[in-house]
Request: fold
Amino acid sequence: MFRSVNALDYMTAQPVVVKPDTNIFNVIHEIIVHKVSGASVVDENKKLVGVISEIDCLRAILDGSYYNQVDGTAADFMTAEVETVSTPIDILAVATRMVANQRRRIPVVENGKFIGQLSVRSILKAIKDFDVPEDKSER
Reply:
């Protein structure tokens, strides 16, 4: 029964995104302010071009410190080869891919456009909602 849960019902429709030309310090700012572990990198046409994580940002700072020149953009440090899902997809298929590929988030793309993302937290929320439909702490 849980297999029939549509993953899009738990997708974050407006996750943190940055543009490829966003300065690395601004990427760090967005990650810290929004309390996330990474962001999707999306161009002006809403096409997903990569993802950038806290580790990518830390690597950028360490590399720059070594050369005494901390600089660069999201495009310089992001992962360009990104695993995505498209619609429709069931939640267990997404969870299986996340565990198998050790991903914390998977961007959702529809018709070539970035429309949101699924995270481990969103999957866990779906499981909680399925198991405990009414949570009095969320009122």
